[in-house]
Amino acid sequence: MLYGINDEGETIEPTPGDIARCPLCAGAVRARCGQVNVWHWAHAQGGDCDSWAEPETRWHRAYKLIVPRQQREVRRGNHRADMVNRHGAVLELQHSSLSVDDIEAREAHYGPKM
Ligand SMILES: [Zn+2]
Q: What is the DSSP track for 2-68?
């Protein structure tokens, strides 16, 4: 995930050594700021509370950065929508294939404005 929540409740980007809270589950997240992968936040306990989460890639991040910050990784129930436009439509960025069941599950969750 691109954003964590600091002690002041602000949305922050990862910086080396930083710890924050997950915007979805409020669990502790650690900044992952290496030289290979895109800088991101990862749950300190491992895994991800969003069962639809996928590794943050340069491709994924680049598309998220097209929209204003408040429209990226927007909480929708127990999932983080990649992008939500100003009219409330969800845009999920998918570089790899998804099964029909997974697509239907996301459509059912996000509704007709996906
Ligand atoms: Zn979480």
A: --EE-TTS-EE---TT-EEE-TTT--EEEEE--SSSPPEEEETTSS-SSTT-----HHHHHHHTTS-
